[in-house]
Structures are given as C-alpha cells and as structure tokens.
Design goal:
single chain; 134 residues; alpha/beta; Rossmann fold; 5-stranded parallel β-sheet; 5 helices; 5 strands
C-alpha cells in the first residue's frame, strides 16, 4: 500500500514586512489540513524564497505582504520560479492587497489572492483543488 505524498507548501514573507501573525496562523491551518508546511520567516528575498521552494520540492508557494510591496515581490518570485523550471508550482498571495492590484498580480502569474477575512477553509480548498503534485 503506497502512501500519497502530502502537498508541500512554502509560506514566505518577502521584503521588510515585520508582521507575520497571519502567515504563521495560515501555516498552522494548512498543516492541520494535512499539508506539509515550511514557514521561511520574515524578511525573505525572492531569491531566498525560490531557493527554499527548490530545495523543499514545493508544490505551492504562499506569499504574504502587508507592506505594499506585493507588486514587485510577488511577480519576481513567479519569474524566478519559472527561470528555475518550477513551472508547476502554484503561487498564491495574501495580506493587505488593494483590489486594484489583483488583476496585475494574476497576469504576472499569481494564481489567486486572498485578502483579509477570507475564510481559511477557502484557502485550503483552493490549494487542494488547484495544486498539481509532482
């Protein structure tokens, strides 16, 4: 009997944003939902995040931003993932992101944006539905 591999999620805080309560909470919720979660900690560069995704063989990269730098960091992470050949890694984002920025982020390769107040079960279901495990 073979055991199916768990979905592996990297939760990352790019930039100088020092608020990680939501990211830590989401990491715990995803773990409780049966996923393997790696939280990278604060003040991560896009290069550090992508290196973690590569080393951990991630299925999903979840980016959190509360400081308004999402329009740079989120697309940069997607770009670096693609450069490393990690085209099937699902990239999602969350935090304080103005609705006017969501279309740009999605065109940049971020699959979905989850704002404040999103029920956590919606995030869990989105990942389970859209993740292509390798």
């Amino acid at each position: 009997m073979s055991q199916e591999r768990k979905i592996k999620v990297i939760i990352a805080k790019p930039g100088l944003d020092g608020h990680d309560r939501g990211a830590k909470l989401l990491a715990r919720i995803l773990a409780e939902a049966g996923m393997e979660v790696v939280y990278t900690g604060l003040r991560q560069t896009p290069e550090m995040i992508v290196e973690t995704a590569l080393q951990e063989d991630a299925d999903v990269v979840g980016l959190s931003s509360l400081s308004g730098v999402h329009n740079y960091f989120f697309p940069r992470v997607v770009e670096l993932l693609r450069e490393k050949g990690l085209n099937d890694v699902l990239v999602i984002g969350g935090g304080i992101i103005p609705s006017d920025d969501v279309e740009f982020l999605k065109k940049s390769g971020v699959a979905e944006i989850f704002g404040p107040g999103t029920p956590t079960y919606e995030i869990v279901e989105y990942i389970k539905t859209h993740c292509r495990k390798r």
